Amino acid sequence: MFPLARNAADRGGTFDAREFALEGGTLHLIASGDSRSVITPLLRALASHVHHVAGLAGSQTAAGRLDPPLLMAMDEVAQVCPVDLPSMLADSAGKGITFVTVGHSLAKLEERYGHDGAANIWAISGVKTLLRGITEPQTLEDVSRVCGTLGDGDDNRVRIVSPDVLRRLPKHTALVVNMDLSPVVVRVSRAWKRRAVRRLAALPLPLTGAADAPELIERPGEVTMPVPSVNGSGPLAGAGDGRR
Q1: Pairing between strand 215-216 and 2-3?
Q2: DSSP-derived pairing of the beta strands 70-74 and 97-101
Q3: Do residues 68 and 97 touch, judged by C-beta distance below 8 A?
Q4: pLDDT tens across 168-204, in order?
């Protein structure tokens, strides 16, 4: 249960990363990836600090990991504040820290993290969701090969997902490659069109501050806070070109 706004008197308080991780708070960080931005180093340090402290806090619980887990959602990961994503991904799953990252293409990831860094992000991401319109030949070929083949013998085997099928997926669908499971094409919906989000958008805004703000109560299967990305892509794991 989270209020829409905090009391104004709390705005000058301190931020406790351990308390934040254990109590399930929400923190939004927005900064460009421009190295000349004065706030970029601060947000990079803060994101790294939260990740580190959350891992330590989770290891000291009875379960040995955060429960509920900490979600670190990173939209346009190759464009925004350059956190050390390859290192973070490598040891987060066992700590109860889940990452959802969005990128336009593997080429953009390589531009930000280098060839090895981008390869690590791609390999470590357990679930990869790819939208239509990918035009990178190597990405199309790699994904097609990962999806596997059907048939007996070398001459009769066919790709389960050919590069051309992946490139021309129908509108509002995506290919999901989930670790060792069979690939599947799913229908995706825009966050702002979901029923729960539309209900929340219709709530009256507070007039005088947090004291008048209605509380949002978590219910199974419902979105408790409307947080679609500005371009409507939503959180998608993995990377691909033409994601929009």
Answers
A1: antiparallel
A2: parallel
A3: no
A4: 999 989 999 998 899 999 998 888 888 888 888 888 8
Residue 193, Cα to own-chain centre: how many angstroms?
Answer: 19
Which domains, from first to last, does the chain contain? 1-125 (3.40.50.300)
pLDDT digits (tens, 9 = 90+) for 122-144: 999 999 999 988 999 999 999 99
Q: In whole angstroms, how large is the CA radius of gyration of the chain?
A: 20
Alpha carbon of 228 to those of 92, 190, 193, 222, 223: distances in Å? 24, 8, 10, 14, 11
- The two structure tokens encoding residue 102: 């969005």
Q: What is the pTM of this model?
A: 0.71
How buried is 232 (Cβ within 10 angstroms: 0-12 exposed, 13-18 middle, 19+ buried)?
A: exposed
Look over the chain and give the mean of its residue pLDDT values, rounded to a whole number.
78
